[in-house]
Design a protein that fits this description.
Immunoglobulin-like; alpha+beta; 6-stranded antiparallel beta sheet; TIM Barrel; binds alpha-D-galactopyranuronic acid
Length: 564
């Protein structure tokens, strides 16, 4: 297994990645009465992995059981850690139910009571059927395939009664190296705590009887020796190890601030234009469970394209990817899972609660990544309706309460009449002029792009919104890999190349646009239903690369503008 930050030196972390027992129970199982003991005909399956990306279970929607065993220290507490699973799951240890959960792509932790026996049996019932009540965050109408299973890593942590949950590091001054470390304790939290702290593997500093807040947090102010600020050009990273009597944690961070001033995004006080792509965690063969090698390849390809920025559309990102972005100097827009939600959703308290919970978990997980420079949520929600306001307000305040160091935004497809832009730090707009073209008779209507962007910016200025940065969070055109056409018609590589070239030229030369995330990095699987009539091959084909990362003509066009 590839371990991501935070890491542990002394704490026993048992990786549960590998081969698990697996049984697909069927498509019409009643989850209230499902009997795991009745599972027959066990198969073997890889974790991490999406079961419905395997040829044997491709396209199946129903209930499945994953099962494994782990040898632990008898009598010691456990914390079971799922880095991401979908779409609904019941977690059972030694026959006792720990939790039932539906927060796809979220980072989930469960406390496990100790046991006198060494061997613990972990059973996870997963379900990938759509059901608005049971799975409020992931629905069939989303334009990307909804996979099921344990698609990210699983670990068992052996922890003492008082353990370290996280240490959040905020940069106070990147050049002076001053930081604030908030040590979050877990378990039997005392009123004060003795901590040993090591920066960059240097000598330990002892902090005796540090006061602990009612929420279990001890705050330390520290200074990094030889500070080098983190930036895309120089992505220098530091580590902070905190130890308690029986536990330890190592967090990695970068010395960097992100702020907005008027219409500009500043990294360590310096203006920077965001040039990049929206990227789904998707591969033709593996669905959302990408091999590590693929993550590296994707970032190398983005670097070759001249990008400094990725929008992690449309859900909390794989931590291996964010660790790599930290190391390779990419800037990331991370967002909670959302796609085109309507007034109906905003009126549904369980949907709203799940959204807020997922946003909180995302911030908790990714807060130390210097690469993550802004938080988002509810991609293309009905933000032009009055009913949207309470949920947008709750999300903005939940995120700001958890992290006040990064701008907050959301991608809107209602640029002319959005009602919530005033709540956020950056105005983000998705638009497809020249693709979902105004003039359906025009061939290759690239000329629609510039006036539409101008009209959007004028309208924002008229509404007094040009006091904050404006970014284009989606814009793009489809092309079928290998489809060359002298007519430069829709779906041809030629038209996509011309389209992307025009967008990149506009963004790079217009100072009012603080950044762009082209839609999208690579093709990804979407609707398998009649909705695919707009999605040839049942893929969203707006990738500059196809689902195997084969570049289309647009690759060269984008590269020449972004690197030129
Ligand atoms: C929307 C949406 C994307 C994708 C895109 C498209 O903007 O946010 O996920 O569906 O449209 O390809 O049409």
């Amino acid at each position: 297994m590839v371990s991501t930050y935070p890491k542990h030196v002394c704490r026993q972390v048992l990786s549960l990645d590998g081969i698990w027992d697996f049984c697909f129970l069927g498509e019409d199982v009643d989850l209230d009465t499902v009997d795991v003991a009745a599972a027959r005909s066990w198969d073997r399956i890889a974790v991490p992995g999406a079961f419905d990306a395997c040829p044997a279970y491709a396209g199946r929607r129903g209930t499945a059981v994953y099962r494994t065993t782990v040898r632990t220290t008898p009598g010691q507490r456990g914390r079971l850690h799922f880095h991401g699973l979908g779409m609904w799951a019941r977690i059972v240890v030694d026959g006792e139910e720990l939790a039932t959960v539906s927060l796809p792509y979220s980072d989930l932790w469960f406390d496990v009571p100790s046991s006198p026996s060494e061997e613990r049996v972990i059973t996870v019932v997963v379900d990938n059927r759509f059901d608005r009540q049971r799975v409020p965050l992931q629905e069939q109408f989303f334009d990307f395939y909804a996979y099921g299973g344990l698609y990210r890593s699983v670990e068992w942590h052996q922890v003492p009664d008082l353990s370290l949950d996280r240490v959040f590091v905020d940069t106070l001054d990147p050049h002076a190296g001053s930081i604030r470390a908030s040590v979050h304790l877990h378990g039997a939290v005392p009123q004060s705590v003795d901590l040993d702290v090591c920066l960059d593997g240097g000598p330990p500093q002892h902090f005796a009887t540090t006061p602990v807040t009612a929420d279990g947090v001890a705050v330390l102010e520290l200074r990094v020796a030889d500070p080098t600020p983190w930036s895309p050009a120089c992505p220098t990273l530091h580590t902070l190890q905190v130890s308690l009597k029986d536990d330890d944690i190592t967090e990695r961070f970068g010395l960097r601030t992100v702020s907005v001033a008027d219409d500009t995004i500043l990294i360590n006080g310096e203006a920077l234009k965001l040039l990049g792509y929206c990227r789904h965690e998707a591969h033709a063969q593996f669905g959302p469970a990408l091999p590590l090698q693929q993550l590296v390849h994707d970032l190398q390809l983005l670097r070759e394209l001249g990008c400094n920025y990725v929008r992690g559309s449309h859900y909390p990102q794989d931590q291996r990817f964010l660790d790599l972005c930290d190391e390779m100097g990419f800037l990331v827009f991370e967002e909670a899972l959302g796609w085109g939600q309507t007034v109906d959703h905003f009126r549904d308290p369980s949907f709203c609660a799940a959204q807020v919970e997922q946003a909180r978990l995302m911030v908790h997980k990714s807060r130390n990544h210097p690469s993550v420079i802004m938080w988002g949520f509810l991609n293309e929600g009905a933000s032009h309706t009055a009913e949207s306001r309470p949920l947008y307000e709750s999300l903005v305040s939940a995120i700001r309460e958890s992290d006040s160091t990064r701008p907050v935004t959301y991608a809107s497809n209602h640029p002319m009449d959005d009602l919530n832009f005033d709540l956020v730090d950056i105005v983000s707009v998705n638009c497809y002029p020249g693709w979902y073209a105004a003039d359906r008779e025009a061939v290759s209507p690239v000329e629609e792009i510039r006036p539409r962007l101008e009209a959007i910016m004028d309208s924002l200025a008229d509404r007094g919104l040009s006091d904050r940065p404006f970014i284009v969070t989606e814009i793009g055109a489809g092309a079928i890999y290998g489809w060359r056409d002298p007519l430069e018609a829709h779906w041809s590589e030629e038209y996509q190349a011309a389209y992307l070239g025009e967008v990149c030229e506009i963004v790079c030369t217009d100072a009012r646009i603080a950044g762009v995330a082209l839609w999208q990095f690579c093709d990804c699987r979407t609707y398998a239903s009649g909705r695919a009539l707009m999605r040839p091959r049942a893929f969203n084909n707006k990738g500059t690369l196809d689902e195997y990362r084969r570049p289309k003509l647009g690759f060269g066009r984008v590269k020449s503008v972004f690197t030129g």
